[in-house]
Amino acid sequence: MNGSDKGDGSGEGNPCFHCGQPVPAGETWPLQIGGHTRAMCCVGCQSVARLIVDSGCEDFYLRRTVPSARVDPEQLLPPELALVDLPLQAQHHDAPATDDQAAELVLSIDGLRCSACVWLIEKYLARLPGIRMAEMNVASARLHIRRDPALCPTSVILRGLRGLGYTAYPFDPLRQGEQARRASRRLFRQLFIAGLSMMQVMMYAVPVYMTHEGIDPDMMSLMRWASLFLTIPAVFYSALPFFTGAWAGLRARAPGMDLPVAIGIAAAFAGSAIATWRGEGEIWFDSVSMFIFLLLASRYLETAARRRSASALERMQQAFPASALVLGGYPQQRDTTLVAAAQLQPGDVILARPGDTIAADASLIEGETELDLALLSGESRPQSFQPGQEAPGGAVNLSQPVLLRVVRTTRDSTLAALTRLAEQAGQGKPALAQWADLVASRFVVALLLLAAATFLAWHLIDPSRAWATAIAVLVVSCPCALSLATPSALAAATDRLLREGTLVVRGNVLEALQRADTIVFDKTGTLTQGRPQLTAFWSEAPQSRMLAMAAAMERGSLHPLARALVQEAMEQQVRPVDVTMLESVTGAGMQCQIDGVLHRIGARRFVADIAGDVLPGALNQPVAAGAGAVYLGSSAGWLARFDLADALRSDAVTTVAAFRRLGLRTILLSGDQPEVCADVATATGITDVVAGCTPQGKLDYVRQLQQGGAVVAIVGDGINDAAMLRAGDVSFAMGKGAALAQISADAVIMSDRLQAVADCAGMAQRTMRIVRQNLVWATLYNFLAIPAAAFGLLDPWMSAVGMSLSSLLVVGNALRLSRRARGPGRVVDEASSDVAAPAPALAGGV
Q1: pLDDT tens-digit series, residues 574-614
Q2: Are residues 808 and 301 in contact, defined by beta-carbon separation less than 8 angstroms?
């Protein structure tokens, strides 16, 4: 219903101008709209219409294609909407403020009826103070808003949308998933009805095709009328998505692929119905029902493929536990209290039982266990955790009960941060997808003109075949395959990457990475571990004994070098020795008594005071650039020297080698000392080194590369990398890096494996190859099929089969990307990719 057609006046007998329902006798709620007095059926519709007009969105009634939803006046502005501004509620739905003080808000919208609803919502919100951006995704019914919370609280937005007649609520994956399931069930019912109709109609059509001597006229008439009635459910129920989509496209002046489908169905059914009524002429009821069934089957399979592609993201969104067990009086008391996970605060001690999901990022304080990190990192093997290690929120406890101390709230947890990034994924379309959409939309217009020209030409040649030939042209050249070629491949590829631990935040990642010719690596935390590790061990005595002493003395220290020694002892399963009189000497090290002998560990001068000034030859080796030396000695002499440095990641060398094999120029861009960067570049095989850069210097260097024509991919992890990550053509942030770096990047490596960047490069190449295959197939198919249909070589049923098979082939080809297989970018075998090799040392040997 178009609002400009009905609803004039204010008396009974007219339908409500807003919702289309009858106006009650003797009651009226008039409103001036478009220079006319419009009748409303209730105060609710009047209030909604007045809000639309007062907001300057009166054109909504000219754009809409169906009546609007009726709003119960009592529920128009419920007071409980104000509760969403409470801190506890807001922390779930509002992302942290960005640099420009704008916060993200994701809402789900109920009550969408046509494209005019999207226009109205975006237009209305744009007029609210504090709104920076409002984008409505009609496919997912999700509204993305960037606003200033101080000027535009959540309750104001929800009240405004409720006033327009739409139910808006902060995005709830469970509710959203239920809506998707309802839509899937509805599509299945339509598919079932179409299939049942097709089978029944074909029972009448097959004898006609197989009988050469003809059928008795009365029997033929009966079969025609039976086919007509059996086709009606398929046309008026199963084909509704195509008719509503076509009408919406026409109203928006953006005809889509539903338009030729709807015209083809309507034309074939109308022509067949007229021929049945007249008792002469050709009928195509079998072609109509087959076309509807096959097209719905393609759409159903496409929907299933998209749901499968979104399954990993849905699991991430639904992984937040609702509650946690808190130990209120730890360590004196061990009684637990069940509290909402959202109420956890840093410092709370929680109990995680086997099978529990850890509610927030927390440090293990009692017990040893194995955690399943598959949801966060894509790692299939459980990881062992010991006291002192930090477990990310969203990890699943597998083996035994443990106690953990919360270090971040659920809102700030690793899983929450990744989920917020994931909600951004898919909002933007890559250039290739935009190009395909543009071509498809123009193709529709050209197709309609071609179908009209075909009808006119055949009307002059053979009028009896004109209608059937024009229908065949409309059906066979439906641009479904062209429209599905790119999005189906991108959806399958991003799903595969997410399952393997790479979160694609923006849609241009695969396309830009496939075009990249230069890759820039940060050093600290990217090519290296980002923390000190033992790289050389010089000893005058058995090394296990020396490491046991060092670990025992350093257990109470928070110094990074001390923690590295303790971690090394844990990894080598060396048990610390017993010490007495342990004390810390500020700025120097630790000292204690071991078996009654004074021992010291720390700086050389500090240890030399008891061990002597002359180092033995084994301990007097040069210290590598960038490494720190920790000395161990006693009153009896020197014992050991531990060289600790930021060691390379185990997969740094193979990752760089993979990009070099792909022909990319590799660059190390760091703010560290030139000699340290040179050592890292030599160890990894990087060709170009730029050291000593400030964050601004990094940004300037990247822009200089781009001005020279380079397509730059960037991998970084620190706050000082954020600017250059945002400037790169495509960028990756490490999963354990700074939050600002992750927000600025196009993709986040959740697994924290540098190898994943090379895997992504391989996936980009395979994805673009499959996209090109799909586009070539869609183009070739239309190039061959359209002339064949136009010259009368294809019947409508043949066209329906060809079009549906073409779409299925495109979707099936794209789904190959979801399979786990070794590709060009895989430089580590799938079976062993989870096993870390020893980290190469940057300092001297043992």
Answers
A1: 888 888 888 888 778 889 998 889 999 988 889 998 888 88
A2: yes
Instruction: Give the pLDDT confidence score for residue 7 in this predicted structure.
Output: 44
Residue with tokens 């923390």: 531
What residues pair up with 405 in beta bridges, in sequence order? 349, 363
Q: What is the largest CA-CA distance in the chain?
A: 119
38: left (phi over 0), alpha (psi -120 to 50) or beta: beta
Tokens in use for 186? Answer: 């509805």
CA–CA separation, 782 vs 437, rounded Å?
A: 16
145 pLDDT above the threshold of 80: yes
pTM of the model: 0.55
Taking alpha carbons only, the member of 328, 560, 319 closest to residue 418 is 319
Whole-angstrom Cα distance, residue 28 to residue 46? Answer: 10
- The string of pLDDT tens digits covering residues 523-534 is 888 888 877 878
Q: For the chain, how big is the Rg over CA atoms in Å?
A: 34
Q: 127-164: string of b/e by CB count within 10 Å (b at 16+)?
A: ebebbbebebeeebbbbbbbbbbeebbbbbbbbbbbbb
Partner residues linked to 350 by β-bridges: 326, 404
SS (H, E, C) 713-754: EEEECCHHHHHHHHHCCEEEEECCCCHHHHHHCCEEECCCCC
Q: What are the residues facing 404 on neighbouring strands?
A: 350, 364
Q: Which of the four pLDDT bands, split at 50, 70 and 90, describes residue 449?
A: confident
Active-site residue, selected from the candidate residues 258, 286, 495, 522: 522
Taking only the tens place, the pLDDT of each residue in 613-669 is 888 877 877 776 667 788 999 988 888 999 887 778 888 899 999 999 988 999 998
| DSSP summary character for residue 840 | P
Buried b (16+ CB within 10 A) or exposed e, 624-639: bbbbbbbbbbbeeebb
Between CA 625 and CA 844 the distance in angstroms is 10
Cα distances (angstroms) measured from residue 424 to each of 96, 261, 291: 14, 33, 37
SS3 235: helix
Which are the contacts of 617, defined by CB distance < 8 A and separation ≥ 6?
Answer: none
- For this structure, is 110 an active site residue? no
